[in-house]
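[Structure tokenization] protein backbone as discrete codes
[Encoding] learned vocabulary of local backbone shapes
[Protein] chain in single-letter code, fold in tokens
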Amino acid sequence: MKFRILFLLLAALFAATGAQAAPAAKAAPAAVTQGVHVPILLYHRFGPTVADGMTIKTSVFEEHLKYLKENGYTVIPLRKLVDYYLKKGPAPAPKSVVIVEDDAHKSVYTDMLPLAKKYNVPVTVFVYPSAISNAKYAMTWEQLKTLQKNGFDIQSHTFWHPNFKKDRKKMAPAEFEKSVQTQLKKSKARLEEKLGTKVDMLAWPFGIYDDYLLKRAAEAGYVATFTIEAHHAGPNDQVMKLPRYLLINADQGKSFARIVEGTAPKRNIVY
């Protein structure tokens, strides 16, 4: 009888221990992280018709925003993604998306701003200051300030959007070095002076960069730079060369859905 009671007690103890251990064994896989996978969507200009290869119809842009909203995506500030890479913040949630614009075209103010406000999405605009309040196609400093008041972040796209590849071929080494320093430092200084903002992110003109340019950008005070390599920002990417999808007007419907999902076929885009 004593042996039977002892056996029953041991059996009960084993069962209780097993019941407690089971949840821990099941919970282990949840601790394994798959890393961040965030598409950075790059726009240039907007309008009622497709004026050139970089123009996206304003109605198509709104379709993009509707798709993101209706399919459970969240548009996050670019800064939040960069902070993750710099280990200053948590990983973005699944189905996070970033929206950016290059060149500060005037249609950002007339077309993009109203829709960004309507859908409550943050946008980062990469600006080359030589065009602001100067070129007919570009915004003014006052318009950029209005963007800031509505949650837009303004960052650098160099000073006058050079083609570093062509400049390197036609310039002497010392001249090229001086030009690079001007493009990186003068843009940053002008934007900070005019807008009172912190400028430490840079989009490479034409997506052109190399190790030399990356080093100079870091020395100039940039903590993140961006390419036009078309894939999601993922765990294997480096903060000084984060990828972006350069969107065109044909990126509608299933084409846009595949880009956001990360299943779009690779393509060569002539900038």
